[in-house]
Amino acid sequence: MTENTATAVSTLDLLVDIFRDVLGCPGLTADTDFYEAGGDSLAAFQVTGRLQETLGCDDIPVSLVFAYPTPRDLAEVVDTDFGRD
């Protein structure tokens, strides 16, 4: 995953932290599945809301959380589609 030099936090690390907080799973890893960790539609909206707020971007669809349910997979899409370099 790319690293934003302004924040020095990779997209992957950011998403792992967001997933951990939203899902209440401190042991969650980059490869933990959103659904298996107890994720639902409300949690998916919280994940995208936090991500949009952190990145200053308001067009990240919640459907990405469902299509790419691990922080690792979602980070790749965010980096590719939303140009987080």
TrEMBL record:
<protein>
    <submittedName>
        <fullName>Acyl carrier protein</fullName>
    </submittedName>
</protein>
